[in-house]
């Protein structure tokens, strides 16, 4: 269920219904597709520095994008924050966002933001393998495409195919390897899981850690979260496709609503979250990678320059999203 949180300057959090807001100058409304606990630290710091209050209207990224589209010029959103580059690019294509000045976002590499600067990536995550250290005979698994091998029948853990990261990863693989290769991969994984999929990445990591499954496909930070809580867990990160296309990345990012009447304040928010301080807070709280070069990630996370990343612009995750979903549905992935 969508929820709204009020973050006030040097104040605690107060919950309010959407209909009960009293909109004021110097008060920004953010439609946020991220969990509040990952956004509140950066929002609180922004408010402390600027005096601008921020109202988080939280829910699923896709649902919030659809809400903005339906609302049109009547939308209450000043900014849109998404966990997924695919939704950001779709919003750009729908004309929902205001292009940002290049000087505001050029610290972020071009492949991690929209070509017209209508959205900008704030933190990146890697699509990796989680492997049980006690599992036997898995040294040969070095690519995500190896997950389709029948030797993994009953041993593989994946999320439901509706998961945003699942769709984004499949899009990257389609760009790099083609639709036929991805179709074969999906069909192989479908056979290997035999209808049993997980609704959360955290459950995949737990299943691999307790030996229920031997290997899974997840975003990197779920593994590090688990290890932070259970340091002795018998799991390890495996970075796939280092001799081929590289690891698939996706970004969380932000855009300013075209219909916001507080463009200057909204741009101040963007300016803060792409600053070194904002980047560190935004990315480190979830063990993600800052998108601005030179800002360090959490110390336990592999350095972004230490492994090969697939050379796929984040805009492709939106441009090809529908084609990817069509392919996934044609295979009948659970």
UniProtKB/TrEMBL annotation:
<feature type="binding site">
    <location>
        <position position="222"/>
    </location>
    <ligand>
        <name>Fe cation</name>
    </ligand>
</feature>
<dbReference type="GO" id="GO:0030288">
    <property type="term" value="C:outer membrane-bounded periplasmic space"/>
</dbReference>
<keyword id="KW-0479">Metal-binding</keyword>
<protein>
    <recommendedName>
        <fullName>Iron ABC transporter substrate-binding protein</fullName>
    </recommendedName>
</protein>
<feature type="binding site">
    <location>
        <position position="221"/>
    </location>
    <ligand>
        <name>Fe cation</name>
    </ligand>
</feature>
<dbReference type="GO" id="GO:0046872">
    <property type="term" value="F:metal ion binding"/>
</dbReference>
<dbReference type="Pfam" id="PF13531">
    <property type="entry name" value="SBP_bac_11"/>
</dbReference>
<feature type="signal peptide">
    <location>
        <begin position="1"/>
        <end position="24"/>
    </location>
</feature>
<keyword id="KW-0408">Iron</keyword>
<keyword id="KW-0732">Signal</keyword>
<dbReference type="InterPro" id="IPR026045">
    <property type="entry name" value="Ferric-bd"/>
</dbReference>
<comment type="similarity">
    <text>Belongs to the bacterial solute-binding protein 1 family.</text>
</comment>
